[in-house]
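name: query_chain
kind: protein
chains: 1
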Amino acid sequence: MGVTLGYWDIRGLAHAIRLLLEYTETPYEERRYRPGPAPDFDLSDWTNEKEKLGLDFPNLPYLIDGPTKLTQSNAILRYIARKHKMCGDTEEELLRVDLLENQIVDVRESFARLCYSPDFEKLKPAFLEQLPGKLRELSRFLGSRPWFAGQKITFVDFLAYDLLDQLRIFVPQCPELGGTLGQFIQRFEALEKVSVYLRSGRSIRTPVFSWTAHWGNTKE
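structure:
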């Protein structure tokens, strides 16, 4: 039995997982759930299955790999990464992976809160004001390394790429997304399996968020 990844038919929290599955050449199939039409956006496509999958904490995304059934996107990423020795090897690499994972989550959650807020337009200027500083911190952390943990790619590079690409869509002319971070993005997108997937019809770049968001809720 192969791997099944379940998530909404959007980018959301599944993009980094899809990229890691592709990069590691893990055979998988997707169950992409779709809401009903506006204005109700009926969720029964998901809720009808939610309690029948044997998940400890039923939620999306989920990953089922034989007897292994996981939710929580970073737990899924770590599970795949451990199979392929992509969590870091040395103590320094492990520390950098743990640190960056949580930093990316913080920045990603602040971005998501903005995009889902009914006060999106009011809150956007403050987010844009603090964003360059956050990106400069990431750039300094990466430094001259090819990957965030060091010389070897790890699962946090997939998280970082996903966030940086979302921000690149949000602020196309942001200078902090050039330079060191821009080179990282180019290096990541040049990975053979990643490049093939991003050019395929299976990859979802947009919508970034779900239909209830105030930005990134449509396909471009």
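note: The chain has a mean pLDDT of 97.
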